[in-house]
Structure formats: structure tokens, C-alpha cells
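Researcher: Re-running this chain for the archive, since the previous output was lost when a drive failed. Same request as before.
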Amino acid sequence: RPGGGGGRAGAGGRTLGKKSKGTTNHLEWSWWWSLNKDRFIELRSAVRAEKARSVNRDTLLGGTDGIGDVKEVSRKQVAKTIIPTLLLALKDAHYDVRQSAAIALGKVATSDDGSVRKALVQLLSDDDRRVRESVCLGLGMLGAPGSLELLAAVAGDETAGRKAVQRTHVLSRTRAFATIAVGLVAARQPTARGRASFLLTDLLMRRERQLDNRVAPAIALQIFSGPDHGPFLLNVFRDPSQDVRVRAHAVVALGKAGVTSAVGDLVEGLADKESSVAYSCAISLGLLTNPTDKKTVRRIAKVARLGRNLGLRRFAMMALAEIGGDRARSALIQMLTRGRGEDVAWAALALGVIGYQEPHARVEIGRYLMKAWGRSKSESTRGAVAIAFGISRQRHVVKMLRKTLKRAGTQELKSRVCTSLALLGDRPSIPAIQELVRQRGDPDLRRRAAIALGLLGDVHAVELLQEVIASSTRSHAILGAATVALGHIGDRSAVPTLVDFLENPDDKCPGITRAFAAVALGHLGDKDELPLLTQVHAHCNYLASTPTLAELLSIL
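Model: Regenerated C-alpha cells:
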């Protein structure tokens, strides 16, 4: 889908973890980071903090610092400009534009906006199944209470659902997306959670023929579940007759729901014969284990070192990161100093997570990260260390990282260094990062560099990206990266450009550019601090994939 993360999502049914030409290796650290980064980057919070700093400068000093002030999109601008433009885009001839606009409307409109809900419901009968799937998600993210029963009818292939999509049967993929949307509505509306729980548990126990329809209820329960779901989810986990991936995602739901009573079962589950289930046990133990639980931390550390396959070892390392505390930190430092290859990258990233959560440990962590940076010859590993520097706030490394931007090296490493410098709030690096945005080359580098400028509060990034877009009319990859980056930056000066792209008055913008503009407007006007789908992305067992989950993980 447009804006879906630069090719992150894998095709459904692929044997994940095996690297082949033209595919992503799901066992590389960058895959975990791409799905979990939002809570560390907190881009919208950074934009709002910069807005507050700007107000203070204007009030107290009578001016600005000369770099430029990010001005956040107001709710009035969302209502008067962004929503009308996106509503118009629902009628676009290009399916990609319609589906992107449907999701964007779910992000930006409030749950009481009846006009948006009505327009989305009408689009449920679109001729293109991809649009219908996106409309389900849009209705879920909108969160109107009245949408719950309609989405449930679509999910259950009931008469009202068939009428809504104007078909004799609802396609299995559409049903799966509607099921996820039930969870999204429940996340928005606490009063709907009881009904949503009943609907989703009923759907899960039907044991549908299609894999997507079996797994989707377990994923939806991850979005809003609480400890009261523990007994049901534990029963699903323990039931060997359930599909492996249903069990795996029910286990993740246990962790996200905070069911601490499940820790003992999850420790045993680390040895489950089904790897997908064992992966999820590691993920949830990271969310549920108390750092003072010496026995459990020791068991997870052993799995991180000696687990039966790479996937289990990687998830166990990140579980230690989430648990934190002296024992977990000590185990990860040992892996960082004694490990090889990608193990070092994962250990560095995990230590960065601990540093983010435990400021008192940052000095020690920074010391070991510096040693890993100096010792590593791998630019992928250095990229992970750079991210760890940023999220653990190692501000003493900024001069070293600035030099890295100026040296010859892979664009991948430079893009990670841009992110790190932005997380460290290093505004003197803005000119060097601006230059990377200007340079022709890797779209991902230019996108990450542009987002780094947004984190740093550089309003001139909007003008810069407008220049990039004007000079890149033949490259869909660059156009997409630059257009979506405009949305990520969060400055309202980008709105007229994006609206112009989407409305296309001169008939110059191709469909894919219009679709990316819709995605960007969704980012700009998002009513949430963190995108709602972060609740699916974060702590996800992406190695237990299905076609619907792969698609969900590609949507930002």
C-alpha cells in the first residue's frame, strides 16, 4: 500500500526468515525496528514540543533562532481543508487513491463525524476489494460506536454485511480486515469493549476455513484486551487443536493484555514444538516479566544465547530489553561483547531500549556501545549501534556521528545516523542532513533524512522536499518517499502542497502520487499521538505471518 514502509511487508505464505534475492530478511534487526520505532521516535510529540519552544522564544525573546519553527496542523485546518480533500479523493478513479484516502480519513476525523462515517460506509461497496479492505480499517480507526455492528456483520459474512458490500458473499480478506476493525473500534470506545470481546471470541472459536479469518480475531484482541481476557486466551494457547498461528497471536495478546499470571505457562512455552508459538512466548515474557524474577530472566537469557533457532534467540534478546533491570542488562552486555555478526546488532539495539527506559543505566550502556561501534566492520551493525545511541540518549557521540555523515559509506548507515542525530536533538547536523535529502539516490535514505529534519524541528525541510518532488517527476520511489515525508514532518505549511497533489487541478499528478499525498495528509492530521495501528505493529510476532497481517504491517 502507498506509504507502507518502503517494502517492509512480506507476501503472505512466504517462509519467513529465509533471505532471497529481492526480499527482506525478517531476522535482521531493521525489521524489528521498523515495526517498533514509533514509541521511541514520538514524532508528533517532538513537533508539539518544538511548537512550545517556538512560542517561548517568541514570547520571551521577541524572535526565533533563525532555523525555523514547526507549526502543527490545527484541528480547524483538519476540518476545513484536509477532510474535505480526502472526502473528494474517495471518488478518485485510481483505486490506490481511494484506499489511501479511506485510511487517512479514519486517522484524521473524530468518531462523531457523521459525514465521514457515511462516506466510508457508502464506499464499502466499491468494486475493488483492496478499497473495501481499507474502508474497514478506516471505519475502525474512525471509531464511531455505530460502526461496530456493521463491521461485525461484514466480519461474520452476515446478511447486513453482504448488503453493505453489495455481494452475495463477503470475501475472506474483507472479513479479516473487518475483524481487525472491530478491535480498532473497541480501542476507541471503551463502552464497546464488552460487545467487541463477545464478537471476537465467537469468531475465533468458529475455526474458519481460511487462515486469515482464523487468525484475525486473535490479532484484534491484541489491540484492546485487558487482564479479564486472560482465561480465554490461555485456553486458546493451551489448545493443541488450534491452528499454530492462532495460538501464536493469542499468546501475544496475553502479553499486551498484561496477564501476569500467564508467566509460568509462557516460560514452558519457550520449548513449544511450534516455533511460532515459542516466538510469541518470548515476546509476551518481555511484556510481563518482573525484572526481579531471577529465575525467569535467567531462563530467557539462556534462550537468547542458546535457543534452537535465530528467530527465538532474537525475540528473547528483545524480551530482555523490555524487562530491563540489572540481570537483563548484564546478559545483553555479555552478548554484545562476545557475540558475532548480527548478534552484536541485536544486542546493541536491545541495550538501547534498556537505556531508553532506564536513564540511570545510560552511562554504562554508552561505554559498551562505543566499544561495539569501534570494533564493528559491518555497516548494518553500526546502523543498529547508531539507533541505540539515539534511543538511549548518548549525546556525547554527536560529533562522531556527524563525521560519519560526511564520509564515504553505505546510504543505509547514513540514514540510521540521521535518525540517531535527530533523536539526540542535534540541530547543528541539520545542514548535513538537508544535503542528504537533496542528493539523488536511495529513496529510503532521503525519506529517513527528511523525517530526521522533522524531528529536529526544521521547517525548511518542507521547502526542500517540495524541490525534491519538483525534480523527481519520473521516479515514483522518490516521489513517494518525499511526499510521505512531508506528512511525517508535521508542519502545516505542507498542507497546500499535498492538497494540490491530491485534488490535481492541472491533471499533472499520476495516481500513485495522489495516493501518497493522501497518506501524507493522514499523517499530518492524525488525531493520535501514536498511530492507532502501532498497537498491532509493536511487539508483533511478524514471523507468524498471514496475508492480512503482512498487509497491516505495511500500513503506516
